[in-house]
Amino acid sequence: MKHIPRKRFGQHFLSDRLIIEGIVDAIAPAPGQPMVEIGPGLAALTQPLVERVGQLTVIELDRDLARRLREHPQLKVIESDVLKVDFTAVAQDLQVPKLRVVGNLPYNISTPILFHLLEHVDVVQDQHFMLQKEVIDRMVASPSTSDYGRLSVMLQWRYAMENVLFVPPESFDPPPRVDSAVVRMVPRETPAALPPKLLEELVQVAFSQRRKLLRHTLGRWLEARAFAGQFDTQRRAEEVPVAEYVALAQAL
Ligand SMILES: C[S@@+](CC[C@H](N)C(=O)[O-])C[C@H]1O[C@@H](n2cnc3c(N)ncnc32)[C@H](O)[C@@H]1O
């Protein structure tokens, strides 16, 4: 039976064969690799991926799609909201130290998914995600650009990232209203040790009023914490490189 795409699940199914091949090539799956796909949908990526890896774990929220996927003998289907999936437990179940995570993500929850996976970064080998191009622009942005913000700092601290493929709306059925792209995210091997929640709070305060100088926002926050170190607050949040935010969080 034909599946009617559900808007509330962000269902835009890939239909362009060349783009699908391009994404699979960018992922470069190899036999036996432990891989997890988020939101397999109608299996546009799932099928070529599983042909190369042999076995694949997929996470799908839509009950009808999950039922179809369960008929595939090489798939292990987790029928769940991805935000509730414990990726560390998935790696333990598969008895592997690290997972490769891939997916054409539902765009309405792409940022929460990225932050959820950040909590499980220790069991991730790499991530390849299709997202709104505008979100990827923010993820990989450099300081002193309008795209540079909370997402850039929180992710660049922990991952090396690159935009690997542009994907136009016509590549999907139904087409989304925005351009898309594929990002490769590789966890950094020796990240600075610090509590992520502290960095998150600091960065949120810094970017709360991005047009103002930091002395009005972060400066006050640092004063309240009796911070006695050196940090130039005569700048705007977007002028501060990731390494300086990380060093400040470490000094607190
Ligand atoms: C953009 S579609 C991609 C479908 C397919 N991978 C493709 O490329 O054609 C997003 C998929 O994620 C699923 N999905 C939406 N919200 C989800 C959630 N919270 N957890 C897991 N899967 C979800 C949708 O049902 C849909 O299959």
Automatic annotation (TrEMBL):
Its EC number is 2.1.1.182. One of its GO terms (molecular function) is 16S rRNA (adenine(1518)-N(6)/adenine(1519)-N(6))-dimethyltransferase activity. It holds the Pfam family RrnaAD. It is found in: Cytoplasm. It catalyses: adenosine(1518)/adenosine(1519) in 16S rRNA + 4 S-adenosyl-L-methionine = N(6)-dimethyladenosine(1518)/N(6)-dimethyladenosine(1519) in 16S rRNA + 4 S-adenosyl-L-homocysteine + 4 H(+). S-adenosyl-L-methionine binds at H12, L14, G39, E60, D81, N104. Keywords: Cytoplasm, Methyltransferase, RNA-binding, rRNA processing, S-adenosyl-L-methionine, Transferase. It is an enzyme of class 2 (transferase). Residues 19-189 form the Ribosomal RNA adenine methylase transferase N-terminal domain. Gene3D superfamilies: Ribosomal RNA adenine dimethylase-like, domain 2, Vaccinia Virus protein VP39. SMART domains: rADc. Specifically dimethylates two adjacent adenosines (A1518 and A1519) in the loop of a conserved hairpin near the 3'-end of 16S rRNA in the 30S particle. May play a critical role in biogenesis of 30S subunits. Belongs to the class I-like SAM-binding methyltransferase superfamily. rRNA adenine N(6)-methyltransferase family. RsmA subfamily. PANTHER family: DIMETHYLADENOSINE TRANSFERASE (PTHR11727), DIMETHYLADENOSINE TRANSFERASE-RELATED (PTHR11727:SF7). This is Ribosomal RNA small subunit methyltransferase A. The gene is rsmA.
